[in-house]
UniProtKB/TrEMBL annotation:
NCBIfam families: hemN_rel. InterPro entries: Aldolase_TIM, Coproporphyrinogen-III_oxidase, Elp3/MiaA/NifB-like_rSAM, HemW-like, rSAM, rSAM_sf. Residues 23-265 form the Radical SAM core domain. Gene3D superfamilies: Aldolase class I. Probably acts as a heme chaperone, transferring heme to an unknown acceptor. Binds one molecule of heme per monomer, possibly covalently. Binds 1 [4Fe-4S] cluster. The cluster is coordinated with 3 cysteines and an exchangeable S-adenosyl-L-methionine. Keywords: 4Fe-4S, Chaperone, Cytoplasm, Heme, Iron, Iron-sulfur, Metal-binding, S-adenosyl-L-methionine. It comes from Microbacterium lacticum. This is Heme chaperone HemW. Signal peptide: none annotated.
């Protein structure tokens, strides 16, 4: 059911934004819609998700209406600040958004369209489990205005899927991709590497299978063992081995090579696309510090440096909205030092990098040694940008520490 929410200052029950919020009308605005439902809980998952037995009174069939109530509250809050802007991106994440009927997803998207409007070229993404995608659903989503399907492939190897507690049929990934293509949707596939028992050969099989599907975009994430998950407990008891850092590094280099040979370019440490137009604009907005409003249990939002997050459980979320109250649990406004650290952390991960001129003190002086160590691209630095080399991507945390010293 996800990790604990962070601490913060109390959020007002009416959802009002502080009077000193100064919203830049030119800053991109995105929307995240969290759908917290899953059929089963994967052993590695630390997201705020719930199976049917964990809902404790919350109703899946009422969820779209609850989100529409939160959208109405957000309209009031932003309109009071004179800050309604068209949404440049919309992202349905989870959980498994496609466990809801297509009509419910369409109604939520309609609520965003009616409240904020969608930019003419808006990117609208829906995450999907391969087993839930049918040709009918893909057509329904496309007709509603969805432009992109992000399919949770994770692996093409059955024993690796089993180690991750993924229950989908690997053959259904190709079926889902084909359905999305017929509906005119862009396609992204997500992969995870470093599962217990996964070999480099297993990983190569998964990557080559993903490339053969001809998606527009691939995300490949190293498995991280989150405390409190089933997989964490299994490792602690010695039932399965912990991920091997060296093997995961080899897997990263392999996926980067294979995707490069397959016509994909990296644009963020864990993301590759066949062309700039197929990069995830929604995720790029996060990395570049844009504004976004997150709807749903546990969803986080950011507007003009103010951050807030909703109550976690779907039942608590529903109760707040039924009472006409904002579901926001707490909020905070990080200070300048925290914002600077986050800015370097996020923007150094993307291929555009960040300007050397934005670094301060020891961080700027560290650039030369990071180039000498092969962690920062020297040619890019001459042009005034900090861009990670592949070795730098593998050691991104160490680079950030040096740049923010």
């Amino acid at each position: 059911m996800g990790s604990a929410l962070p601490l913060g200052d109390p959020a007002p029950l009416d959802g009002a934004l502080p009077d000193d919020i100064a919203i830049d009308a030119q800053r991109d605005f995105g929307v995240y819609l969290h759908v917290p439902f899953c059929r089963v809980r994967c052993g590695y998952c630390d997201f705020n998700t719930y199976t049917a037995t964990e809902l404790r009174g919350a109703r899946q069939d009422a969820y779209a209406d609850e989100v529409l109530r939160e959208i109405a509250l957000s309209q009031d809050a932003l309109a009071a600040r004179g800050a309604l802007r068209p949404a440049q991106t919309v992202f349905f994440g989870g959980g498994t958004p496609t466990l809801l009927p297509g009509g419910d997803l369409a109604r939520m998207l309609g609520g965003i369209r009616d409240t904020f409007a969608l930019a003419p070229d808006a990117e609208v993404t829906v995450e999907a489990n391969p087993d839930t995608v049918t040709p009918e659903l893909a057509e329904e989503l496309a007709a509603a205005g969805v432009t992109r399907l992000s399919i949770g492939m994770q692996s093409a190897v059955p024993h690796v899927l089993a180690a991750l507690d993924r229950t989908h049929d690997p053959a259904n990934v190709a079926t889902a991709v084909a359905a999305a293509r017929r509906a005119g949707l862009d396609v992204s596939v997500d992969l995870i590497y470093g599962a217990p028992g996964e070999s480099l050969a297993d990983w190569e099989t998964s990557v080559r299978t993903a490339i053969a599907l001809a998606p527009d975009h691939v995300s490949a994430y190293a498995l991280i063992i989150e405390e409190g998950t089933q997989l964490h407990r299994q490792i602690r008891r010695g039932e399965v081995p912990a991920p091997d850092d060296d093997l995961q590094a080899d897997m990263y280099e392999l996926v980067d090579d294979l995707l490069g040979d397959g016509g994909f370019d990296w644009y963020e440490v864990s993301n590759w696309a066949t062309a700039p137009a197929h990069r995830s604009r929604h995720n790029l907005a996060y990395w570049r510090g844009a504004d976004w409003w997150g709807y749903g249990p546990g969803a986080h939002s950011h507007v003009d440096g103010l951050r807030w997050w909703n109550v976690k459980h779907p039942a608590a979320y529903a109760q707040r909205l039924a009472a006409g109250q904002s579901p926001a649990a707490a909020r905070e406004r990080p200070d300048a030092a925290a914002r600077r650290l986050e800015d370097v952390l996020l923007r150094s991960r993307i291929s555009d990098g960040l300007a050397v001129s934005e670094l301060e003190g020891e961080g700027r002086h560290a650039v030369a040694s990071l180039i000498a160590d092969g962690l920062i691209d020297g040619a890019a630095a001459v042009r005034g940008r900090v861009v990670l080399t592949r070795r730098g991507r593998l050691l991104a945390d160490a680079v950030v520490r040096a740049l923010t010293a």
